[in-house]
Design brief:
single chain; elongated
Length: 87
C-alpha cells in the first residue's frame, strides 16, 4: 500500500501527508454517503394529503364581501403648490 501511495504522490506531486489527508477526506465522505443511503432506505416517509378546500372557500367568501367596500382610487393626484409642501 505504501508503494502505491508513493507512486501516486510522485505522479501528482503531493507529499505523503497530503495524500493521507485526501484519503481521510474521501473516506469520511464515503462513510457519510453510506450512512445517508442507509438512513434513506430504512426510513419510510409518511406523506400526508391535506384538504384545504374549506379554508379556501372561507377565504374567497370573505374576499368577495370585502371587495365592494374597498373604494381605492389609484389615479388620485394631489396638487402641490411648492416644494416645502411636498417635503
Amino acid at each position: 500500500m505504501k508503494k502505491v501511495l508513493n507512486k501516486i504522490s510522485e505522479k501528482i506531486g503531493f507529499t505523503n501527508t497530503e495524500i493521507n489527508v485526501v484519503l481521510f477526506i474521501v473516506g469520511v465522505f464515503m462513510v457519510g454517503l453510506l450512512g445517508k443511503y442507509y438512513n434513506y432506505t430504512t426510513t419510510k416517509t409518511n406523506i400526508r394529503n391535506f384538504d384545504y378546500s374549506e379554508q379556501d372557500s372561507l377565504f374567497f367568501a370573505m374576499n368577495q364581501k370585502a371587495e365592494p367596500n374597498l373604494q381605492v382610487d389609484k389615479n388620485l393626484e394631489i396638487k402641490v403648490d411648492s416644494k416645502r409642501e411636498l417635503l
